[in-house]
Amino acid sequence: MAQDRPRVVIVGAGFGGLTLARALRRAPVEVVLIDRQNYHTFQPLLYQVATAGLEPEEIAHAVRGIFQKRRSVRFVMGTVVGVDWNASAVLLDDGDRIAFDYLVLAAGAVTNYFGIEGAAECTFPLKTLEDAIALRSHIIRQFEEADRHPERIREGLLNIVVVGGGPTGVEMAGALVEWFELVFRKDYPHLPMNRARVLLVEALDTVLAPYDERLQQYARQQLRQRGVELHLGDPVARVTPEAVYLQSGERIPTRTVIWAAGVRACPLADRLGLPQTRGGRIEVAADLRVPCRPNVFVIGDLAASRDETGRLHPQMAPVAIQGARHVARQIQRLLRGQETEPFRYRHRGSMATIGRHAAVAELKGGVRLTGPLAWFAWLALHLVQLIGFRNRLQVLINWAWNYFTYDRSARLIFHIQPISVNELPEIKYAELENPEHDTS
Amino acid sequence: MAQDRPRVVIVGAGFGGLTLARALRRAPVEVVLIDRQNYHTFQPLLYQVATAGLEPEEIAHAVRGIFQKRRSVRFVMGTVVGVDWNASAVLLDDGDRIAFDYLVLAAGAVTNYFGIEGAAECTFPLKTLEDAIALRSHIIRQFEEADRHPERIREGLLNIVVVGGGPTGVEMAGALVEWFELVFRKDYPHLPMNRARVLLVEALDTVLAPYDERLQQYARQQLRQRGVELHLGDPVARVTPEAVYLQSGERIPTRTVIWAAGVRACPLADRLGLPQTRGGRIEVAADLRVPCRPNVFVIGDLAASRDETGRLHPQMAPVAIQGARHVARQIQRLLRGQETEPFRYRHRGSMATIGRHAAVAELKGGVRLTGPLAWFAWLALHLVQLIGFRNRLQVLINWAWNYFTYDRSARLIFHIQPISVNELPEIKYAELENPEHDTS
């Protein structure tokens, strides 16, 4: 490594971290990119892995593969558990430390259980490939068990409850009913498939709340029509291994609760001694730097960045990607002795898919799409955003296969042990037990 | 299910069990196919999953998908832990029992550690998809650790030891050096790749012992030329978490020992009270029936079937497949009141691949091939044997990708917990504690 170049340490190889490392390719810096996984995960398609439509490897890409030809980017697989502000170094879980000249925190978000009783213990998150494989395996196991012991169906074996009516919850619920209708109905001819229920539970009175009212209405109607039972305006009170209890008092017997109710900043954020907003996001100035830490930036889901009216940016990939490009420019400005500029997020639109031929899209300039056109646009957009030609080709083939054969090929049960990303390993560093809120 | 048809219960959905269930499609029987996994695994390509060349889902196929259109085949996902001979029923691990009119044992083989100290605890088997994913993840983890802590390389972090010089060991060793040379050399530019060693340990003086001497010589020379260190004629004495000790006294420091030294009958075989050969295979008559059990057949790796000279058939897929077709015919003969016929295995040849453009093939009639021709023949043969058009297409694309780009895309670390297939769950059945050797 070129020792004389200033070192930019990026924590997290998600959309933000990866974009930043790429954007710095011509900058006179040395980049160290740290992630706990050795691959980048294309999270928007995790729900398709969980519903057997895609294979896990197709939506992931080894980080080292991306930077094989960039000697200025060094990848470190490790878990960052803190920052030694005095020494300007990040601390890894095995005791290593990596010094930085610039630090960019892009560690993303984890599942937010909002302190609801039983949620963390009894529900399935969907943030990692392991989560997706574990969920896929669990759902198929319920059907296998029901096939052998139909008397247990009444215990809710075939009830899948999705908590959260945002895009993730809607996409998940839509994919589940399709999977059941197209595949399980044929796979389990002896099962009473009318007793396989997909329930979407949402605290608000609608799904896709931030979208235009007409799109919300379309989504609700499409979900219902496809067989999703909507429980709107009825928040989850608690979850047990046998059931979900709603605040209305309703009890839904189930062994499968998918938690798509929201995210919070990854637990690293709580260990840095930096001001945070609700949900743990780190407060940043307009240029995405941490106030009083002139060499520390935060991007993506972890950053409490705001628009001109002071509203927090949504926690979605485009904000992270644009933030990364912004930070790449700012680091180069700082290296040249220039002032930083404020970050301006340009919202180009949002999309959510419900199922075959059904999606909603809200584009810049008030353009709203529903139906097959929105659905094909969603497919195309996600395809081009995938990393790597091979991944694109394989996802395209799988989508075409699923589309024409009405099949879901990856319905295999793997014995996998997901590791919670909601918890950080224990800190081994004396100096972090008493983090100094030094603002020099 | 048609209750009046005699029921054929098949234990195991490997090559034998699957072929048999398909071959019985026009027979007037009800088929119950039982497997502990919900999918069929194409075991000959497991080593390519373990070396990141293929994705796990590509070499597996959901059993229910294969028989969706065959109402006469019923699949049961479960682990058979014994047979109640008096009641003519197989016993599942959860206490269920499934009655049979005909029973076909096709449960295959598991890893044979030959009682070598530390082998079962400290080595990686390669019999299931989970094994392959766990091994892939483990190997990449060693490189990641070496990249962060080069001082640990001297502890054998980058030494991979393959035990066993049969086709599996040879293919594994060849794939490993290719993976290291083509991918890791670029992924880890800071690592001294000359210290990444692949060692093949074999008790005999050669690899591919059953093959013609010229093919053995070719394989040894190709392996050496590609960088595999051959330790021939030096059996493993014991294995610890830090090293392999050979009988010569040599100590090879390593954290990765892949056990490809041999197989033994799956543990179910030991619980049936039936005569077994060395390696646990169940003794069968010439028609593949268990002597004195006129309605019980054994096929594949589990069967101690023999050729005319009394030599045991090799434990390979073609024997299982031909055995399955034979048993399908015999069951139909028995149903018609006819005598059974003896099983005659027709050996068409054997092949093993070493690496890019290098393979050996020994075909019927004394035809021997080496080099690119044998290699392409090997690829083509394995491609057509895969189950499902989609799997074939995806494997073909991945092979073409790997061939032209010199890449291995699936190099992702998953946190997976393989479940040992060498152990059966505890028996819950009183009657099995004292198995009656009733031969009525």
From TrEMBL, chains A, B:
Residues 347-404 form the External alternative NADH-ubiquinone oxidoreductase-like C-terminal domain. It holds the Pfam family Pyr_redox_2. The keyword Oxidoreductase applies. It is an enzyme of class 1 (oxidoreductase). Keywords: FAD, Flavoprotein, NAD, Oxidoreductase, Transit peptide. It catalyses: a quinone + NADH + H(+) = a quinol + NAD(+). Its EC number is 1.6.5.9. Residues 7-323 form the FAD/NAD(P)-binding domain. GO terms for molecular function: NADH dehydrogenase (quinone) (non-electrogenic) activity. Belongs to the NADH dehydrogenase family. This is NADH:ubiquinone reductase (non-electrogenic).
